[in-house]
Amino acid sequence: MTLGFSQQINGKPNYFAEKIWISILDGNFPDEIKFQYDLFYKEYANKFGKHWDAIDFDLIKGKVHTIRHDPKDRWKTGNLIHPVINNRSSNRFQFAPAIPCVSTQKIEVEWCDSGNLLGRYARVYVDSTRYLGVFEEKENRWQSTFNRDSLDTLAINDGFDSVKDFFAYFNQNFEGKIIHWTDLKY
């Protein structure tokens, strides 16, 4: 199934294609998938007349999953993921080989108003029962219930630079799925 990725979020480059390639190259993928990196890199340059954004792969973390709204319950373990940019346009480009969906998890971001000077805050749940933590919008801080880094880890693993960027994007109530292409689980 096609899985479209943007190249910018909130007006700045997100490097999702590169971050997904990092997760492939660093992950437990067969060599025949890893060896295709140069092919896709060259095809991108041929199609768009430039290379992927010049970033140092040693300075960023891999994107090991994506979070999507899935009201029709289409994403399931075993589905093949065809990662693309510019989906539904003449510039559509599949930037990596098809990779399997290893697992999915339910995710919910629940925004609440504290009713006082603290303003809004968000709670994040995975699989309905695992409570990852709270983000206080006005204070721009988060607290995790199980380990201090769980919200930070979720944000970075989804390709965001920080928890603040994650909540700038998920700034309303949200229910969906975490679509995993690695063995990671929360």
Major sheet size, sense and barrel closure: 6 strands, antiparallel
Order of helices and strands: EEEHHHEEEEEEEEHHE
Strand content: 25-35%
Structural class: alpha+beta
> Percent of residues in helical segments?
10-25%
User: Uncertain segments of ≥5 residues (pLDDT<50)?
Assistant: none
Instruction: Name the shape in a single word.
Output: globular
Write up what this structure looks like:
There is one protein chain. With 186 residues, this protein is of the alpha+beta class. 23% of the residues lie in helices and 31% in strands. A six-stranded antiparallel beta sheet has the order 4-12-8-9-10-11, covered by helices on one side. The model has no long low-confidence stretch (mean pLDDT 90).
Task: For the structure shown, list the relevant keywords.
186 residues, alpha+beta, 6-stranded antiparallel beta sheet, 4-stranded mixed beta sheet, 31% strand
In brief:
This protein is α+β, with helices and mostly antiparallel strands.
Strand-helix topology:
Elements: E1 2-5, E2 8-9, E3 12-13, H1 16-26, H2 31-34, H3 37-48, E4 65-68, E5 80-85, E6 93-94, E7 99-100, E8 103-113, E9 120-126, E10 130-136, E11 141-144, H4 150-157, H5 163-169, E12 174-180
Parallel strand pairs: 1-5
Antiparallel strand pairs: 2-3, 4-12, 5-6, 5-7, 8-9, 8-12, 9-10, 10-11
